[in-house]
Specification:
The chain is of the alpha+beta class. It starts with 9 loop residues before the first helix and ends with a helix. The strands form two sheets. Strands 1, 2, 3, 9, 10 and 11 form a six-stranded mixed β-sheet that branches. The protein has one domain. It is globular and about 50 Å long. 23% of the residues lie in helices and 34% in strands.
């Protein structure tokens, strides 16, 4: 090895990969600085992020020209511990217009898709339509099971989100719901000590600890 070169052992490699899996989607979700919009205009923003040892979240929000942010839909995807850090070919993408938002999450062999129409309040999860009405959270379980993801419930949380130029996250919204806190299973233990440590950091951020 050349003098001054950095030697990475396997624990370091695993840690770097895990950091990318846990935080990469969150950073991508923040996106570039919010553009100036004409008075009265509204945009739809969204993103994906890991929120517990067993779950990822996809959120969609309406952003007014005054910077006010309102949560329109939150989907929590739950699977076996660490499912989002397995396999290769991982990534996430999302976008849309002022009315519709589409998102795709790829984690190894697991691919999750959703669409949301803010005008009709219809969400489509893995090809199945969900009429939200006055609900704004969808709970999906078994994302990496052979039978595929199953919609196991819906609920409503306070849709108000922090305004201004702060990153558009949903941690505070989630921690206000006991049902969501239970669904995240933050007490789940991972076999890999590095993965466990990162999981604890993520849960502390989400739960405000």
């Amino acid at each position: 090895m050349k003098p001054g070169a950095l030697e990475l052992n396997m624990p370091c490699v695993r840690l770097i990969a895990l950091i990318g899996a846990l935080f990469g989607a969150t950073l991508a979700a923040q996106g570039p600085p919010r553009p100036v919009r004409p008075p009265g205009s509204v945009s739809i923003q969204g993103g994906d992020q890991v929120v517990s040892p067993v779950a990822m979240a996809t959120w969609v929000a309406r952003v007014g020209s005054d910077g006010a942010r309102v949560l329109q839909m939150l989907v929590l995807w739950r699977g076996s511990p660490g499912w989002f850090a397995r396999g290769s070919g991982s990534g996430a993408s999302g976008g849309g217009d002022g009315r519709r938002y589409r998102s795709t999450i790829r984690r190894g062999e697991v691919q999750l898709q959703l669409e949301f129409d803010s005008q009709t309040q219809l969400a489509t999860i893995q090809g199945k339509q969900v009429e939200l009405r006055d609900q704004n959270v969808i709970l999906v379980d078994g994302v990496d099971e052979a039978k595929g993801p199953q919609i196991v419930g819906t609920l409503r949380v306070d849709p108000a989100l922090p305004s201004g130029d702060s990153p558009l996250g949903v941690e505070e919204t989630m921690r206000g719901s006991q049902e969501i806190r239970s669904f995240l299973r933050c007490d789940t233990r991972l076999d890999d000590p590095l993965a466990q440590k990162m999981s604890e950091l993520v849960c502390a951020r989400v739960l405000g600890q």
